[in-house]
Amino acid sequence: MMITKFLRSRRPLAVAAALAVASASLTACGGSDSDDARSSGSATIRALLAAQPATLDPIVGARSAQIVWATMLEPLINTDKDLAPTDTGLVTSWTRTDATTWTFKVRPDIAFSNGEKADAAAVANTITLTRDAAASQLKSYFTNVTAIEAPDATTVVVKTKTPQYNIPDLLTTVYLVPPKYYQEKGSEGFAAAPVGTGPYVWAGANAGRDISVKKNPDYWGTKATNDGITFTWANEAAQRLALIQSKSVDISFDLPPAQASAAKSAGVDVVSTETAMKIIAFLDSTKAPFDDPKLREAAALAIDRDAIVKGIFDGQAVADAGLLNVKPGQQPSRSVTADPARAKELVGSAAPAVQISYPAAQYTNIEEVAQAVGGSLEQAGFKVTYVPLDYGTLVKRIIGRQVPGISIFAGVPNVAVPDYFVSGFLKTKSITGNCPDPKIDELAQQALEQDGAEQAAPIYDQLNTIGVVDKHCYVPLYRQVFNYATAPGVSGVVFGPLNTVDFTKTTR
Question: What is the pTM of this model?
Answer without folding.
Answer: 0.79
